[in-house]
Amino acid sequence: MELAIATTVTAPFDDAVSRTKAALAEQGFGVLTEIDLSATLKKKIGAELEDYVILGACNPPLAHQAVGVDRQIGLLLPCNVVVRASGEGTVTVEAMNPQVMVQVTDDAGLVPVAEEATTRLRAAIDALGA
């Protein structure tokens, strides 16, 4: 099982972040958190890192279904989406594969939730590569 659903886009970094947020919104995901990991590491420990943002995306109906099956599933929510500079003019966008949630919990009740989340996240990521 792959850890991520991913694509690489040719775009300025800030544009890729904006496009990612828009693609997620088209699939019913809001961005609850945005962590600028490169800025945080620079500030806290002086470490240099390429542009790297972690978006905490949430689809409320899917989140509700998931916590209805397993209250501890909140430990794996929201779905993390990473936008990171990956080369000369390219940006990699990666979403956590929701199937990991099923594998970690081994709860068959989460299968339909993970399948729908996978479909929606894959559509958002695919839209970036189009």
Write the layout of secondary structure elements.
Layout: E1 4-10, H1 13-26, E2 30-36, H2 37-45, E3 52-58, H3 60-69, E4 79-87, E5 90-96, H4 99-105, H5 111-129
Antiparallel strand pairs: 1-5, 2-3, 3-4, 4-5
Helix pairs in contact: 1-5, 3-5, 4-5
Protein name: DUF302 domain-containing protein
Domain DUF302: 35-98
Organism: Speluncibacter jeojiensis
Could you characterize the architecture of this molecule?
Residues 35-98 form the DUF302 domain. This is DUF302 domain-containing protein. The protein starts with a strand and ends with a helix. Strands 1-5-4-3-2 form a five-stranded antiparallel β-sheet. The model has no long low-confidence stretch (mean pLDDT 94). It has helices at 13-26, 37-45, 60-69, 99-105, 111-129, and strands at residues 4-10, 30-36, 52-58, 79-87, 90-96. The protein has one domain (4-129): TATA-Binding Protein. It is an alpha+beta fold.
In short:
Pfam families: DUF302. With 130 residues, the chain is α+β, with helices and mostly antiparallel strands.
Return residue spans where pLDDT drops below 50 for at least 5 consecutive residues: none
Strand content: 25-35%
Helix count, DSSP H or I runs of 4 or more residues: 5
Q: Helical amount among residues, as a percent range?
A: 40-55%
Order of helices and strands: EHEHEHEEHH
- Please state the average pLDDT score: 94
Computed over alpha carbons, the radius of gyration is 15 Å
If classified by CATH, what would the architecture be? 2-Layer Sandwich
Oligomeric state as shown: single chain
Largest sheet, described in full?
Answer: 5 strands, antiparallel
Cα end-to-end separation: 24 Å
Which CATH class applies here?
Answer: Alpha Beta
What would you call the shape? Answer: globular
CATH topology: TATA-Binding Protein
Q: Strand order across the biggest sheet?
A: 1-5-4-3-2
Number of domains: 1
Organism: Speluncibacter jeojiensis
Pfam families: DUF302
Protein name: DUF302 domain-containing protein
Domain DUF302: 35-98
